[in-house]
């Protein structure tokens, strides 16, 4: 069953480790020296009540007919092309996108900020639509990572063959028919307004037999099924009277974030054959300019100053939840104002460190949840208003950031990566 407000995740008992460092005093070399410390990322899921068993169907998923993305984009003839059963269509290149340009010699980079959302469901709380509207209001673009089974009705759950788990099982609930229709509408509007639709895969399995235990072929099975669910939602729901989505998932999805940030090594091997260009599944890193892993841009969650810089905490709502209320989603209401301000302060400290320093992109990852009286949503509201209106700031999607990085001189990016987060350099020596 879904909960009253349409949310389908519950945090399980776990813990998160704070990164103890002193960013104001530590140089990049010192930061990198301790970067091998493991971040424990908190999975938020509903434990599967069915005993996990291996399935013989893994690797034989429904969507294995995936066609790799073409290396060159053909010129659009101006006509809408309906795809498959009419669930999706191609309406030409996405509009209102950042036009990537190489930095000119001595030019200070823009301050990129990426707000990303795991799950991308329009539930009864209407948080998807709220942040889509907020992005439009503040001339921002965001990345919405869609969970594939959020477009698959529960009555068709046996179409899902999750790796290492029984057919039809998932660690989250399936969406209601109403939520599927509402989510489709938000996906349509989000895309039309220039936002990115990525993937959060399907069953949200974490821990034992989750993504960290999956082989390359099992990850490919998960990806193929994602494509199948989102490209056939009309057939699976029987909703024939709804207009197709105005984009082709196989063209538009160029990256995603794995549930619980697990399994990136094999995931990176899997996604290359799909033509994906980035992955946001790293469990955490310092605020430095991105680099590639196995040819794929790596966009990790970042460590931001927490409690006035006493600690470094990951740039996601889970991190604040576990540190402030020990994972309880309904902690002490008397502390909500303090926790909300603490969350805002941490995000802003991380922003200011790079805005007045290295200009490394800031990555913020969140979920559409009302934990602790909505304080994490309220915090994001404040941060969007505070940062997306500043001079030199571009609130963009991961896709737009990828496009921008791809046109920069490799030597310039290498020099940018040598900067401490708070270091404001002579830009003429960095950008040549």
From TrEMBL:
Residues 72-82, 96-106 have a biased composition (Basic and acidic residues). InterPro entries: CE4, Glyco_hydro/deAcase_b/a-brl. Residues 62-106 are annotated as: Disordered. SUPFAM superfamilies: Glycoside hydrolase/deacetylase (SSF88713). This is Secreted protein. It comes from Streptomyces cynarae.
């Amino acid at each position: 069953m879904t909960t009253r407000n349409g949310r389908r995740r519950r945090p399980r008992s776990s813990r998160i480790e704070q990164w103890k460092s002193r960013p104001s005093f530590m140089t990049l070399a010192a930061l990198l020296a301790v970067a091998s410390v493991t971040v424990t990322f908190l999975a938020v899921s509903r434990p599967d009540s069915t005993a996990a068993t291996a399935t013989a169907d893994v690797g034989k998923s429904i969507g294995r007919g995936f066609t790799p993305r073409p290396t060159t984009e053909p010129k659009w003839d101006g006509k809408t092309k309906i795809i498959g059963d009419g669930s999706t269509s191609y309406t030409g290149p996405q509009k209102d996108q950042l036009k990537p340009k190489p930095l000119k010699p001595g030019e200070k980079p823009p301050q990129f900020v990426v707000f990303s959302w795991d799950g991308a469901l329009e539930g009864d709380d209407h948080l998807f639509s709220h942040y889509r509207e907020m992005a439009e209001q503040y001339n921002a673009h965001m990345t919405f990572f869609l969970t594939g089974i959020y477009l698959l009705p529960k009555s068709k759950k046996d179409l899902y063959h999750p790796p290492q788990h029984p057919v039809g099982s998932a660690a989250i609930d399936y969406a209601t028919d109403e939520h599927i229709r509402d989510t489709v509408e938000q996906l349509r509007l989000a895309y039309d307004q220039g936002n990115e639709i990525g993937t959060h895969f399907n069953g949200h399995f974490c821990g034992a037999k989750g993504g960290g235990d999956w082989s390359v072929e099992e990850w490919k099975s998960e990806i193929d099924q994602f494509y199948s669910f989102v490209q056939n939602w009309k057939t699976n729901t029987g909703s024939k009277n709804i207009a197709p989505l105005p984009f082709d998932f196989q063209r538009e999805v160029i990256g995603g974030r794995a549930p619980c940030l697990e399994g990136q090594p094999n995931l990176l091997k899997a996604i290359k054959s799909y033509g994906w260009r980035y992955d946001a599944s790293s469990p955490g890193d310092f605020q430095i300019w991105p680099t590639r892993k196995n040819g794929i841009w790596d966009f990790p969650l970042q460590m931001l100053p927490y409690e006035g810089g006493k600690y470094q905490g990951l740039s996601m709502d889970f991190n604040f939840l576990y540190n402030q209320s020990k994972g309880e989603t309904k902690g002490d209401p008397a502390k909500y104002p303090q926790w909300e301000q603490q969350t805002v302060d941490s995000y802003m400290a991380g922003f200011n460190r790079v805005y007045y320093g290295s200009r490394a992109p800031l990555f913020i990852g969140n979920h559409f949840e009302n934990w602790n009286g909505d304080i994490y949503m309220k915090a994001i509201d404040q941060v969007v208003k505070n940062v997306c209106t500043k001079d030199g700031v571009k609130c963009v999607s991961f896709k737009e950031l990828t496009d921008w990085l791809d046109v920069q001189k490799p030597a310039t990016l290498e020099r940018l990566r040598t900067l401490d987060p708070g270091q404001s350099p002579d830009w003429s020596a960095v950008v040549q």
